[in-house]
Amino acid sequence: MTRCAWCGNNPLLTRYHDEEWGVPVHDDSRHFEFLLLEGAQAGLSWLTILKRREAYREAYRGFDPRVVAGFGTGEVERLLADRGIVRNRLKIQASIANARSFLQLQEEHGSFDGFLWSFVGNRPLVNAWKLLQEVPARTELSDRISRELRRRGFGFAGSTIVYAYLQAVGVVNDHLVDCFRYRELAASGK
Question: Which CATH number does the domain housing residue 143 bear?
Answer without folding.
Answer: 1.10.340.30
